[in-house]
Amino acid sequence: MRLLGTGAAVLALLAASMVVTEGTVARPAMATTAAPPTAATTTSYPIPGDALFVAPTGNDANAGTQAAPLRTAGAAVAKASAGKMTTIVLRAGEYRERLGYVAVPVTLQPYPGEQVWFKGSSVIQPGQWIADGGAWRLDNWNPGSVCRASAPAYDECMNPLHFNDDNPVGGDPQMVFVDGEPLRQVATREEVRAGTFFHDGTADKTYIGADPAGRRVEVTAIKSGMHFFAGADGSIVRGLGFAHYGSSQNQTKEPAAVIAQAKDMVFENNTIIHNAATGLLVNADNIRVNRNAITDNGYLGIQAHRSANLTVEGNRVSRNNTERLGYSAGYNLSGAGMFATRVHNAVVRDNVFEANQGNGLWCDLSCHKLTAVRNLIRGNSRHGLHYKVSGEALLASNVLAGNGVTGLSVLGSNKVRIINNTSVGNGQAIAVQEDSRPTCPGDDDDCPTDAERALGITWDTADTTLMNNVIAADAGTAPLVNTTDNNTAESGRRVGGDGMIPVAQMHHNGYSRELAGTPGTLVQWSRVTGASLHFPSLAEFQAATGRDAGSRYQESSFLVNAPAGDYRLLPGSPAETAGAALPADVAAAIGVPATGQVRLGALAWPGEPLAAEHLRNGSADGASTVPWWTTGAQLAAVDGELRASVADGTAEAVLAQRTAPLVSGRTYTLSFDARASADVAVQVAVQEGDAPYNAALAQDVELEAAAQRFSFPFTATTDTTVAEVAFQLGGKGALTVHLDNVSLVENTWGVSKEPKATEAEALAAAAATGRLVEVLAERGETREVYATPDGSFTSKEHFQPVRVFKDGVWVPLDTTLRKQPDGSIVPGAVPTSLKLSGGGGGPLVTINRAGRPMALTWPTTLPTPWLDGDTAVYPRVLPDVDLRVRAEPEGFSHVLVVKTAQAAKDPRLATIKLGLSAPGLTVRAAEDGTQEAVDEATGAVVYEAPVPIMWDSTPPAAQAMKALGSPETDQPDGNVGADASATQPGDTSKIAAVATTVANGEMTLTPDASLLTGSDTTYPVYIDPMWDTPRASARLMVSSAGWAKYNFTKTEGMGRCPRDYPPSGRYCNGWYEKRLFYRVPTAKFAHKQIISAEFHAEETFATSCRKRIVDIHLATAFGAGSTWNSTKDNWGRRLDSRNVAKGWSSGCPAGDVLFNVTSAMRQAAKEGWSSTTFGLRARDGDDQLAWKRFERNAFVRVHYNSPPPQPKMSQLSSSPGGPCRGPQTPATFNRLPTLFAKNLTDPDNKGVEGEKLKAQFQVKWYAGGVLKTKNLGTVKKMSASGPRRATFSVKVPAGVVPQGTTAHWEVRAYDGRAWSPWSSAGNATACYFLYDARALPEPVITSTAYPPLDPANPGQTPTDGVGKYGAFAITMDARVAKYAWAMNTDPSEGSAKTKTAATESVTAMPTHAGLNTLYVTAWDAANNWSTGTYEFWVAEGKAPKAHWKMDEAAGATQLADSAGAYPATPLGGAQLGVTGALGKAINLNGTGAYAATSGPVLNTAQNLAVSAWVKLPATLPTTHLIVASQAGTKMAGFSLKYDPGDKKWRFFRTQADGSTVGAGTAVSANPARPGVWTHLVGVQDVVAKKLRIYVNGVEGVAAGLGPVWAAGNAFQIGAGLWNGQLGYFVPGRIDDVRAFDRIVTADEVHDLFTIKPVVESKWHLNSATGSPATSPDTGQGVPYPLTLNGAAKITTDWSKVLVQSPAGTPSGALELPGGNNDYASAGGAVIDTRDSFTVSAWVSTPGTPGRVMTVLGLAGSYNSAIAVRYDPAKKRYVVDVPSKDGTGATTATVEHSTFHQGNYGDWDHLALTFDATEGTVTLWVNGNKEAAAGGNLSFRHGTRPFGPIASLQVGRSLAGGGYPAGRAWAGVIDDVWVLRGVASQDLINQLSLPTELGAIPG
Predict the structure, then answer these.
(1) CA-based nearest residue to 802, from 783, 789, 775
(2) E strand or H helix at 585, and its extent?
(3) Which of 1292, 1290, 1323, 1313 is nearest to 1208 (CA)?
(4) What are phi and psi of 1240, to 5 degrees?
(5) Which residues make Cβ contacts (< 8 Å) with residue 981, sequence separation at least 6?
(6) At a CB cut-off of 8 Å and minimum separation 6, what does 907 contact?
């Protein structure tokens, strides 16, 4: 079935009920709209000859013929005869009437092809409305036929129990519609605004917030449409629409729009919509309800009561209970799509029950023999299919998807067969539970009747069958299958799971989880006695219970794409043949053969597409603006856009639309195009449609004249009946805003099972697959990050570790204890090494964090422990005293369990002394009772302990309590309070602190004697010290009773303990309130754009199902010693609130509560907070019903976007004006310029230049001392996507900048969500210019070789040209005396030539692909100057004519040319397959080995270039060497060579083939370096007559070019021809040789050099040998062993080592104790710091140091060119860059706000890059560069390290001629790399994974 768009026929329901049969029908398509029906179904029923006709133009005095129709249907019914079927045909139109008593058989149908509506409303004319203070009032509105509803009770109209606290007027049946759209009712006159109304039942007044002028306003006036009684048996109602009826929830007052109390009726193809209570009520036998659309009714869609043989087939029942009735009192009174009671032998088949606020399909109170098959039950807020206190049912082949509570729920019902259903994406998949009823004798709601008992209905869950189902997990914590027995132990009626589901009747099911351990419990199995069993795996459940034989489990979906609505099994899935044979009656009911293979899951269901779109009329294609509404603005649909005009002075102006509901926890995307008449920032929000209008998304967007596309993903934080998209336009002055393509869709992104290493790879995969793709580089102990298909990221930040990096792989956290072969006991996987005693002597427990061990020893020999999960129990360490040691995710606790009063008197308990060993640590107790173990070398806290506490086992009181304020029909599930245990105090426990002292190697605990041995103490007593490793994340509970729990375990209470309410209050020991704090690290979000963020915490218990408000606040920091009193002032602004109740019973089950914390995360990102603290507290701290319990495993989910990087000054230019100039030298010109920004990039688009980007330009100047700003607009890129094509330009318009005024301009980039910093931010400047019409006119440049750039033509075709000369004509003013030109750079005056003509001609060559600019500067005699520019597009340069990559394997006999034409042959013993610079290489022996082609490659008399990588021996050769040449007869035409005389590289030519006289020699700037890879390029330019040489991208000394000649023989590699002899053989390696038949430009040389950074040095630090010990350098350059000094050593202790070596190689790391002489050094210039380079290292230190500590330095003779250190004052890493290697140096710094917030505990990965081209130093921490440029953040422009250096120092740095004392690194350093060149983001991401790389990947 498909719901069609607005204005179309609404239901394709006809026999339209398309049913998907698994494996035979194509996948359903996505719906394009979620619009509710606005038209009745179009039908064509036959008309019998004796039919009566009714028409809006008729007259009830007529005969009722077609020619003389009646006016009303009531008149036609009055003419019908008893006992005879009368057909009544209605002509098109609206009938505002009520057929209140139909007792004759009639068929009501429309005329063929026409649409008929019965409406319960009246049209109110505009003149009846009276303007009333911003609203419009209708007086004397008192329709007598509508139920009277008066506040506060409304009890005439409804059962008060149905009230919802969130919607107190939900029971009022009054409704108002404007232009067909319902207004939302509010409770007071003051709340009225656009889109709402208020009905004052006492004064008979109705107020609306929309101006009725020109609108059609309808107000409800009739309570029901049709009511059929006995006598109307067999009546048929078909093809009609019913709307606007004021039906009542009071069952005695016409509770539905259409009521059937006559037998054998048929309802088909009707539309029943927007009625106040129920749509259709069935209360008779043998009724068929087929193919109807029943939607958007206030309470129920369909209600059936005491109806036998009912058939409900092919209907669409959606979005009912719009009034949210029944929420306050538990699900048993909530609304539903269909609600049936005491129906017998009903068939519910092929229906869609979707998005109802309540249950989808609900059968209750002795339903019997229900057959519910082939239904699609999706997106309902509570249970999907709920079968309660009933008997015998077949629930088969249903799809239950995305329902809020349970997909399929059976409660108190017997003989229910659950077969071949698909339950996916629900809060809980399947629940089979026992109700606490029957409580016989009792009324009908408490006990089945005798007649029902005779049918076998017991109201006890038993004889359940569960087979062939697909049972899929949601992302929540609920088990997939839950069995709960709600009977109390005292009742004697508990049967547990064993009694509900027999062994033989649970089998062949398919279970799936997307992630291992989510949820942790696969099956929860209730027991007759004791707590339920929680089985984490299918195998454990099968073994323990014998059930689920033949069932299967997998950690991936069985289904094609359930989030997108495709519920078919994946082709080829084992589930296709995994089902058990079907009983014949089941097969017949489903409609499949009874024989053959059976699939798991649903076999057929309605093919209803998933309605993704929540908004209507988002594209304004017609003239209507409905359903958009405004306040304070004029709205129109013009030219396919929504146009909202706001007058000046309007403070509040809103454009909004109410939408379909949002579901908490689901993600959505809002997107739209927008432009405005002025530059303006407006806010768009997606928020609740009702007060308090909490926003799930609130985003500021900057609009301008050009349309922009905006897109924002977010997660809904609360369930809404109605949501609202609102644009806030007020307070901006006169404004017109244009909107188009406004869309709100639910994201149907699944999770890919194939994570990617880097952000770029994950983004690409997400875009390609439409799924969330995890970024492995971001996976951590407490974090996972996913790339989204829309190009952003979503991060999940946990408050405690959830996984551990162990043996080189991530494994789930596992605190379960295991015995080791040596007898010791260790947990499965925790972040910090933990070892417990296996008994006997030695330490009780040893914890070791980063090589800092601490051990506690029990004073006597320990008994052998027994293991209880995460706890080792040492029995009877003292008489009747057990010692329990529990492994925690962050540490451990050791609890003494004192079992008896006699045991408590043991004097050894009065003072408990434990041996304490903590080498290198100082353990101290603070005044507040907390304890710290502090690293003596760093001052960091390595371990901490909160104030130890003790508690007793005081039980809950057993006295009478006052009852709740109103009845609670639901009973609490399980325990209602926390009992005392070894893990936490009970709510009624007495609690006291334990005094602690540390001295002389002992820790002494002194329990509180009054509690330990008190007369009112209840045993056992628990004494609980615990130790944690401090982390960025933490939790805290504080109690007003005076105690707190730091890093609380399990759950904790919040609010006022409900001592006065049973049964919860029995667990309160005093009148106390609790509050909770959570701290999460947030440094990684610094300067990111936070789109949305939500805090998730599972509420496990509430005092009742009555909702109470819990607030979340931004809070200040807390510590292990924080208390109620010390945190009273910690509460900052309130961020959000939730009115919830979860965990009291199955009516309001436990579940996640989501809070919108976007504003806090935005503040944290903007201000670079290292961590952010949240606080949870009850809104009313004295309200006992606000008591809740929350799980410790909370998390924050953040949707974020990385803004584009700041545009660099080097990317900016103007025409005229030239390159960007600072304030000291502004460009001067006599006409206004065009501004250019070139090659901007977007990090969220794989760094591709300009794929999504736009750029905004603005110009500023001072006038009268006031800064003026003109926004020049946001412009799109000027060409198609691709390398160097992201160029943007805008012309400064005339009349903007005054003449004679120095102005400046700047630019920023926009990626569709976020802006980069302005180009002038940080230590950059704006681009300055002086506009003066009298100034020297700029030169005018033209060229026919290179056509000029056309900014108006984005598709302009580039000209072939890199490496190719072209002619340019330069026309200059008569005053010009001289001129100079340069390509893509500012011409220097020193290169100027005298002007000899008005027009000069120059020959120039573009230097790179994309936009090139020829700059020409002209000077007059007075040295006034101006610069002209000429921009033109150029294609990529011609590929090499030959390219030998040298990647062949050893033994190969030919070197392939990638172009295919010129293979080369290795000769003379040349060795292939050795390690090269870029891959493999050729190794030459220097005596005769080389490679050569069979003939010439290049014409050596023309332009050419040759490039190669070469690595000479560690000692430079003493003979000439030729790397590449092309032979003539006697001489080489050119030689790229090494000269031993000055040890430099040369590019050399001779004058002729037989001559040894040179024709030019270009010489390198610096001598060759031995033992390192060097990149060489030689260029011959016959036009400029120049030879050039480049070494590592640096140009040497060029030479003039003499006569050239063509060498016609072989191209030779590693040798050359000289005077007829082949020689000059290279001893070394050569890689990647390229031969070009054109010039290679300097830009291209740079690109060739930086294709891949060269690993100059690399220390894996796995071993050290010799004396002094050295660790080898395994890089590609000259080896510089790292010498260990002082106490520095290589450790292989696995607890101290993170980076994993390849299999078979021990992993090690450099351990530095922190002394002044404890360091390692590599003597020699490991890198030339004047060129681009990268340094990378892993570093670790436990805790947060209290002193400066140095990671490394690149030392010169007096200072370090680069020093990386930790700054304790700023708690971050800092890079120092001195200006020179001597006295008087100034120091620039670069900082990064992240410290110890990576993915691997105390380890951080650091990478420092220097880009010599840009002069930029950048610090990366854990793969992240901070996004914004600031004074000292992340990166710094215009900063250059000095050079050369003399050594690398690890653990210290040279400063001021010495090594400052007290600054050495204390900790571990590993895997240090030094690379020549700037590492890319991808490479840094690779290096930030803790796995050793042998070489650079790729």
Answers:
(1) 783
(2) helix 584-590
(3) 1323
(4) -75, 150
(5) 1022
(6) none
Strand order in the sheet with 1212-1215: 1218-1219, 1212-1215, 1234-1237, 1288-1291
pLDDT tens for residues 118-167?
999 999 999 999 999 989 999 998 887 787 666 555 556 666 555 566 67
User: pLDDT above 90 covers what percent of the chain?
Assistant: 60
At 587 the three-state DSSP class reads helix
Which residues, other chains included, contact 351 with Cβ-Cβ below 8 Å and sequence gap of 6+?
Answer: 312, 313, 314, 315, 316, 317, 338, 361, 375, 376, 606
Measured CA to CA, the distance from residue 383 to residue 358 in angstroms comes to: 7
Give tens-digit pLDDT for 1758-1814.
Answer: 999 999 999 999 999 999 999 999 999 999 999 988 888 888 888 999 999 998 877
E strand spans, 323-375: 336-341, 347-349, 352-354, 359-364, 368-373
Closest CA to 725 of 700, 744, 748: 744
CA angle in degrees (0–180, nearest 5) for 947-951-953? 165
Short-list 1257, 1264, 1271, 1267, CA closest to 1327: 1257
pLDDT of residue 158: 64
Q: Annotate 210-230 with b (16+ C-beta within 10 A) or e (fewer).
A: bbbeeeebbbbbbbbbbbbbe
The pLDDT assigned to 1149 comes to 80
Strands in 753-880 per DSSP E: 773-774, 783-787, 793-798, 803-806, 809-812, 814-819, 825-829, 833-836, 845-849, 852-857, 866-868, 871-878
Give the SS3 label for residue 1311: coil
State the DSSP H helix or E strand holding residue 1135, giving kind and residue range, or none if neither: strand 1131-1140
What confidence tens digit (pLDDT) does each residue in 609-668 have? 776 788 989 998 888 898 998 888 999 999 999 999 999 988 889 999 988 788 888 899
Q: What is the dihedral angle through the alpha carbons of 710, 713, 716, 722, rounded to the nearest 10 degrees? A: 30
Which residues contact residue 1014 at a Cβ distance below 8 angstroms, ignoring those fewer than 6 apart? 990
Provide the pLDDT for residue 1738: 96
User: Binning pLDDT at 50, 70 and 90, where does residue 492 land?
Assistant: confident
Instruction: Provide the residue count of the chain.
Output: 1898
Q: Where is 1642: in which H helix or E strand?
A: helix 1642-1649
DSSP category for residue 577: G
Please write the tens of the pLDDT for every residue from 1329-1382: 998 877 889 999 999 999 998 877 767 788 888 888 999 999 999 999 999 999
Question: Which tokens belong to 313?
Answer: 């087939």
The helix (run of H) or strand (run of E) holding residue 1544 is: strand 1544-1550
pTM summary value: 0.80
* Residue in 416, 408, 625, 571 with CA at minimum distance from that of residue 501: 416
The DSSP call for residue 1887 is H
Do the bridges between strand 552-554 and strand 510-512 make them parallel or antiparallel, or are there none, so unpaired?
parallel
In 3-state terms, what secondary structure has residue 1352?
coil
Q: Does residue 1283 have a pLDDT over 50?
A: no
* C-alpha–C-alpha distance, residues 1562 and 285, integer Å: 104
Show Cβ contacts of residue 404 under 8 Å, excluding neighbours closer than 6 positions.
Answer: 380, 381, 382, 426, 427, 663, 664, 719
Q: In terms of Cα–Cα distance, which of 1598, 1574, 1594, 1566 is closest to 1585?
A: 1598
Mean pLDDT of 457-461: 95
